[in-house]
Specification:
The chain has 256 residues and is an alpha/beta fold. An eight-stranded parallel barrel has the order 1-2-3-4-5-6-7-8, surrounded by six helices. The protein is globular and about 45 Å long. Bound molecules: 2-phosphoglycolic acid (PGA). 2-phosphoglycolic acid (PGA) binds next to strand 8.
Length: 256
């Protein structure tokens, strides 16, 4: 039985005051013991302490959106895994398409970040996904396989429970356009087969594969009902307590 993982990616929104207000609303609605799946929110780093504080007494975990591969040193503007753990986070999002596109993150860098995050006892949510032109020319599986290859070599199958993959077709992120449930299932099933080939069948079942790209209450049930969709990485719809709560409720109603 895999638990769904419902993860909110707040991106560069909500400073400490607003982030604490949203986390406070979630905290009221979802006290400890009120859901059976895994729920995570990922504020911008500067809002993490306020959110961790506001979520005390809940089962909602906190994530960051990026880390460096070193523990400390002269890396202006970066944060490290010991800092992330010290702040009370359990997850790190790695290799989001916005980081690949605007901050030059390569597959190699994404793989070394995933390795570091898992070695330090955090859970990695590694994002993969093709661009529109790659979907149009039919190369989406090739693209995603290449993005996964380095990561699967960098970490060990024994860490499969701490490894989460988020399939986020770039053309569906923040566009209101969503992959159809069939497109999502086809890619998720393919991703699971790549993991099974590189690792093994059991490890491939332990890895949770999230869908991301305009997931919202109106389309979540269909997407989460697909066999290989184990949750969602949600941007826009995670910024309001009502819509994020609806997503948590939908996952609860479908619990695998
Ligand atoms: P979106 O973002 O739900 O706003 O499309 C998803 C993401 O980028 O993680």
């Amino acid at each position: 039985m895999t638990k769904f993982l419902i993860a909110g990616n707040w991106k560069m929104n909500l400073g400490p005051t607003d982030a604490a207000a949203l986390a406070g609303e979630l905290s009221k609605k979802w006290p400890s013991g009120s859901f059976s799946n895994d729920v995570v929110v990922s504020p911008t780093a500067i809002s993490v302490p306020a959110v961790v504080d506001a979520l005390k007494g809940t089962d909602i975990a906190v994530s960051v959106q990026n880390v460096h591969t070193e523990d400390s040193g002269a890396f202006t503007g970066e944060i490290s895994t010991p800092m992330v753990k010290d702040a009370g986070c359990k997850y790190v999002i790695i290799g989001h398409s916005e980081r690949r596109e605007y901050f030059g993150e390569t597959d190699e860098l994404v793989a070394s970040k995933a390795k570091k995050v898992i070695a330090d006892g955090l859970r990695a949510i590694v994002c993969v996904g093709e661009k529109l032109e790659e979907r149009k020319d039919g190369s989406q599986q090739k693209v995603v396989k290449k993005q996964l290859d380095g990561v699967l070599s960098a970490i060990d199958s024994s860490d499969s429970k701490n490894f989460v993959i988020a399939y986020e077709p770039v053309w569906a992120i923040g566009t209101g356009e969503t992959a159809s449930p069939e497109q999502a299932q086809e890619m998720h099933n393919y991703i699971r087969s790549v993991v099974a080939d590189r690792w093994d069948e059991t490890a491939s079942k332990n890895v949770r594969i999230l869908y991301g790209g305009s997931m919202k209450p109106a389309n979540a049930e269909e997407l989460l009902s697909q066999d290989d969709v184990d949750g969602g990485l949600i941007g826009g719809a995670s910024l309001k307590a009502d819509s994020f709560s609806e997503l948590i409720e939908i996952a609860e109603s479908l619990s695998k």
